[in-house]
Specification:
Strand 1, helix 2 and strand 2 form a beta-alpha-beta unit. The strands form three sheets. Strands 1, 2, 3, 4, 5, 6, 7, 8 and 9 form a nine-stranded mixed beta sheet that branches. Strands 10-11-16-15 form a four-stranded antiparallel beta sheet, with helices on one face. The chain has 17 helices and 16 strands. The chain is of the alpha+beta class.
Amino acid sequence: MNLKDLYINFFVDHGHKQIPSAPVVPENDPSVLFNTAGMQPLIPYLMGQPHPYGKRLCDYQKCIRTNDIDEVGDTYHHTFFEMLGNWSLGDYFKKDAITWSYEFLTKHLNIPVERLAVSVFAGNEYIPFDEESYNIWKSLGIKEERIAKLKENFWIAGETGPCGGDSEMFYWRSNDPVPEVFNPDDERWVEIWNDVFMQYVKNEDGSIEELPNKNVDTGMGVERTVAILEGVNDNYASSIWSDVIELISKISNTPYKNNEKSMRIIADHLRTAVFISADNAGIKPSNTDQGYILRRLIRRAIRHAKSLGIDINSNWEQEIAILLINKYKAYYMELEENKDIILEVLANEKTKFNRTLEKGLKEFMRVTQERRDIDGTTAFHLFDTYGFPLELTIELANEMNLNVDIEGYKEKFKQHQELSRSGSAEKFKGGLAGNSEVETRYHTATHLLNAALKQVIGPDVHQRGSNITVERMRFDFNCDHKLTEEEKEQVEALVNTWIDAKLDVTVKEMTKEEAIASGAECMFIEKYPDIVTVYTIGDNISKELCGGPHVKNTGELGHFKIKKEEASSAGVRRIKAVLE
């Protein structure tokens, strides 16, 4: 039995309900491009909204983090990873959470206690030292010397909202003798699990007060834990990656040894590209948002495939993608369902990139026709715009007896990284304090837009994705033609008629079967639990399965205005609209 199954079975046996993994593209959270942690899709429930599955939940969640794309290639960085999590929504707290963590690690994963250490919150000027967690660990047999009190063991997503101390578990990942005293700064101690105790709430004025209902949020990374259990110091040498690396080695006819960086990048980036392409949000390579990340990952994988001598015009990326689809489809059904889309995305982007590389070669010849050395700005432009890796620029320059300003290139590259990271940080700034009043209005408006499109275009129109920010709403729907001006005007008028009618928005819990029988629409039925929430607007003008949030009455929305209607992908159109 693999780690995911062991984990889920353990917590189900302890009264938890398994919830489906949320999509990698957040449905109602504009603060990030992708779901970056298992807790992110649960934000409304951590804020107090009742969860249809109850108060004890567990899952394995697909996560994507893009802050460190350029770091992938070492032994432990990944863009896509799986996160195991269990939650208590106002139910059990520290004693049960810590005890179960200890039991799972030592009894089910058979990790020797001698190789474990933990940390707890040391306290600060507002919140006292977490003596309770400290004493629980001691009672379980963890020696005092192995329990670190750390001020940084405090967790909050964003600037306000639920927060609290956390307790991290570490494993001695080294063949050296295990030290008696735990030193958190020693990199041989590797964090494998984190229990977060949402005991407090931070208000907008900076004050902190205790929560009446306390939550537990935990996280364990699958890739890192499997590598630890299998005794390898390179995540890519674990069973999660071994078959993928073996296939890349076979395709390139080169060994993993001395080619580790390129093979890790190809394996990681194609796995992430497969999961993004499979997501029902319908992301395609582009120059903005999720599409830009997808394009960047595929193109970086192609560049490293070229460096391994792989024939780029062969179906090498299809072979690797099919292996990944087969490897994960038992856990994530969308991979099999959207297999053709995944393969098409990879093939199309490869073709486009090959053309771009040709343009890059022409650009290189243009900038060097006067036989001048290549400055850092030009070298970075060739990389960023045309996908020329620095190594290729240097190689071509050497053939022409020209020099390349490598340090200047690195400086431009560093500036690019800092911009990317600050952008990611800004995206996540909202944290648990998201779902503002404006976003709530926009979310309700997507339901009205969906209903209007069904009346104007036809009943077979269905939502294919949405994205909401405080400035606008974006709504994707299946449609085989560009909307006419008359159709757009009719849709707009219908939505505003329903807004002006000041219709009540009601919510009701029922079984999934009852909801479907009542005519309620949902985007992806398989991801909903057995008990669902159904939002109805007016006299069945709109009825959808949804997690919210919504206004109480359509009169709160304001005037609806379509700003743009365009193609999103084959057979899918996109509307961008505002509430004025």
